Amino acid sequence: MFGYLLKRLIQMTLVLWVVSVIVFLMMSFTGDPVFMVVPIDATDSEIAQARRLLGLDQSPLVQYWRFLTSLVQGDFGQSYVFRQPAMTLILERLPATVEMVLVAMVMAVAVAIPLGVYAGANPEGRLSRTIMAGSLLGISLPGFWVGMVLIYLFAVHWGVFPSSGRGDTAELFGLRISLLTWDGWHHIILPAVTLSLGTMAILLRMTRAGMMEVGRQDFMKFARAKGATRHDVLYKHGLKNALIPVVTIFGLQLGDLIAFATITETIFSWPGMGKLLIDSIYRADRPVIVVYLMLVALIFVVINFLVDLVYTLIDPRISLK
Amino acid sequence: MMTNDTQNPLLAVRDLRTYFHTFSGTVKAVNGVSFEIGEGEVMGLVGESGGGKSVVGFSVLGLIDEPGKIEGGEILLDGQDLVTAGEDRLREVRGREISMVFQDPMTSLNPLHTVGRQMDEVLRLHTKLDADARHQACVEMLESVGISQAAERLKAFPHQFSGGMRQRVVIAIALLARPRLIIADEPTTALDVTIQSQILKLMRQQIADKGASMILITHDLAVVSEMADHITVLYCGNVVERGKTRDLIETPSHPYTRGLIDSIPDTAHRHDRLMQIPGSVPDIRNLPKGCNFRDRCPRAQALCAQQEPVLTKQHATLWAACHYPLKPGETA
Ligand SMILES: Nc1ncnc2c1ncn2[C@@H]1O[C@H](COP(=O)(O)OP(=O)(O)OP(=O)(O)O)[C@@H](O)[C@H]1O
Ligand code: SF4
Ligand SMILES: [Mg+2]
Fold it and tell me: Is there a contact between A103 and A162 (Cβ–Cβ < 8 Å)?
């Protein structure tokens, strides 16, 4: 167990290191950040001095070494635009993104699992066909379009939900959380629904496919022969056996949603990391982009690890090795 | 008078018809099957692959799924019909009154639940015992099917057991709620030969101990001749012959039964090599008119192609559906 954890830790560090190289290379190919920090009318010597200050006059290797050492120390530098530590900026907005993604994921799972189980257990039924047709829509409709339609219907037309912003937040352990206020919930519904539809559809289809597969297995019939209720057969015996691919996709989608909440955040002016990223890309605010990319990489790596742990909880035949 | 025609049989199946409505036509998997089992009796249900043996077993438990359906007949447990019973009643019956052992022990157990949990489930469903009593009952049952260190083994998962051990677990599960009838659907075919006889011995002994009845489904007449009190032979969803084991094995009257017996390897019958019944089972979706066996039957005559034979009384305890049945002493 300890050996496994150590191995995983080394693996994760390696992945993050590779990401840091890629991020560094990307940054060096995308314009000269010195113009972000000097005034428009700066003289050549002023520019040269700024370049020295930023370390941009050094060789790429030295620059990378400095980049890496400061990353390791958690020093991502100051945002060129906000003149604040880039890390602080991102972390301030992280809760908004995370809570929107979590609400979206919970909604996706809450709908996808029961409907997927039903559709898998009654593949020929009319309701199942309707569910499957709906899930096809969920997969194929682009998120931004869904978001706009929802805004039009629920915000503009019926006026039941606000179309933008985060609403009131309350503070918990120094984090600003929408989910602690009624107004926050009111604001989070539309963006979370928008974000969840695609994932919901994918999880539903995975669950259905898994249940259909499991439904053919002898142990399902044996469970019925023991006298178990239909519900127990489906959920206690069937679902757990169908869950491995669903958990895999869940993990990937969770990472994806955090990374690509950008579009939804933009449509709903949701003050999360994604929106900050877009703004920072426009302004070539390198430190912020770097923090964002490294953080997303870290999140992916951690989710991946957690998913592997969950596998072992589900299936005793899978062990940590 | 057949021995199993008791006054009040435990289970009486009358004219059971179970059909599968598939795209390529209706499969009449079980087409008018009748038999009876008394308390404490073992009935062998034999026939070649596709004869409808498993479908009979699943029909009795109400486990026929789409596109299958029980189209007619009665399944009387203590005189009460299960065909018309609701799902709630069937759930009471399953595991409690009638339980089932499947062919393949590798796939009958849920790979993700411990053996203990899967055993406990039966007791939770069918008894009012508290957790301790259930645990105790599980330990005792596992021990009685020959698994040592039962308390420890309850915490293990199926993949930590060998095939023979898993089938013992399945049998333990089938016996736990003390059902009155056990349907064993080829319980040993997936196991290797030495384990097969152990498991069969175990089942026979357990059934005798508990005073339960059993339907032993198999294509192996040798197995069934050792264990069954009486035998029902299925061919293409019909009963072709039935009767007491000794009569049926020693002096079968139906040519199909004769063929099955002749293909038992290593019997007392003086055959140099194994005889197989020539030909193959006809497509059950469009059976020929007359006797289903006639294309393979050495005794077939013109009448066999025109008229379907019905079960009629033969010598000793036998009943057979054949126009030209064998007399005792005739070979083929
Ligand atoms: N779900 C199903 N859909 C369509 N046909 C089926 C289905 N289940 C069984 N059948 C058909 O019913 C007939 C009887 O099948 P059954 O499984 O009862 O045979 P069996 O006597 O148990 O054979 P085996 O010795 O191979 O187990 C076969 O022709 C089979 O193809
Ligand atoms: S009825 Fe005719 S074909 Fe059928 S088993 Fe008897 S003799 Fe053979
Ligand atoms: Mg079978």
Answer: no
Instruction: Kindly list the residues from chain A whose CB atom is less than 8 angstroms away from the CB atom of residue B173.
Output: 226
Q: Give the domain extent around B332.
A: 249-332
Distance CA A158, CA A152 (A): 8
Measured distance CA(B187)–CA(B105) in Å, rounded: 8
The answer to whether B152 and B114 have CB atoms below 8 angstroms apart is no
Q: Which residues contact A218 (CB under 8 A, 6 or more apart)?
A: B102, B104, B107, B108
Residue B221 and residue B264 in contact, taking contact as beta carbons nearer than 8 Å:
yes
Pairing assessment for the beta strands B25-37 and A170-172 based on DSSP bridges = unpaired
Tell me which amino acid residue A316 is: P
Q: Of all atoms in ligand 1, which is nearest to the CA of residue B57? A: 18
Give the C-alpha separation, A257 to A261, whole Å: 5
Burial class of residue B296 (count of CB atoms within 10 Å of its CB; 0-12, 13-18, 19+): middle
Instruction: List, as ranges, residues with CB under 5 A of the ion ligand 3.
Output: B 54
Q: What is the pTM of this model?
A: 0.86
Total domains present in chain B: 1
Residue A130: its pLDDT value, please?
94
Q: How many angstroms does the Cα of residue B27 sit away from the middle of ligand 2?
A: 22
Tell whether the model's pLDDT for residue A90 goes beyond 50. Answer: yes
CB atoms within 10 A of CB B15: 11
Q: What is the pLDDT of residue B268?
A: 52
Q: Is the CB of B53 under 6 A from ligand 1?
A: yes
Full set of structural domains in chain A with CATH: 2-65 (no CATH), 86-314 (1.10.3720.10)
Distance from CA of A219 to the nearest CA of B (A): 4
